[in-house]
Design goal:
The chain is about 5% helix and about 45% strand. The chain contains one helix and twelve strands, in the order βββαβββββββββ. β10 and β11 form a beta hairpin.
Length: about 160
């Protein structure tokens, strides 16, 4: 799998892509192939060393994402592989895969498409500007307001 990390404290240029072994879900966890990840104000502040308690670099950030369940732990009872879900995680959603407890997962509405850009109005976080990290094909893009600002190809 690949994940976006803060390599050191600083501006957006400190964000780097690194390879990591795809996690295996524990007894009560699900592994989700992540397609969309929110970028929260607290994560921007953490990257700038202005958020107490955030992980120190090099580390990943991210609290929520959504995608498709790839595998489940042996005691998972609420979900099955192939289900489309929204996921909450602690410092783990800036990645192609998220492993989290099944209690932190909820079904995704059928109307939510992985093929269309998200509506920025649904992800407002700071100063009336929406930021969202999402994947289109093999490319991760950052949406700020209503247009892509930059992209990093995580699949090559």
């Amino acid at each position: 799998m690949k994940e976006v990390i803060i390599s050191k404290y600083g501006p957006p240029s400190v964000l780097k892509v690194r390879e990591k072994r795809t996690p295996i879900p524990r007894k009560h966890e699900v592994l989700v192939r992540n397609y969309f990840t929110g970028i929260n104000f607290s994560e921007i502040m953490a990257r700038m060393r202005l958020y107490p308690g955030a992980p120190k670099p090099p580390s990943t950030l991210g609290a929520e994402g959504c995608g498709v369940i790839k595998s489940i732990g042996e005691n998972v009872s609420k979900f099955q592989p192939g289900e489309r879900v929204m996921v909450f995680s602690r410092y783990a959603s800036y990645a192609t895969h998220i492993c989290t407890n099944e209690d932190m997962v909820m079904p995704l509405p059928d109307e939510f498409s992985f093929e269309e850009e998200p509506d920025p109005a649904t992800v407002l976080y700071e100063e009336l500007v929406a930021d969202m990290l999402f994947q289109r094909g093999g490319t991760w893009e950052i949406i700020n307001g209503f247009k892509p600002l930059s992209s990093n190809n995580l699949t090559k």
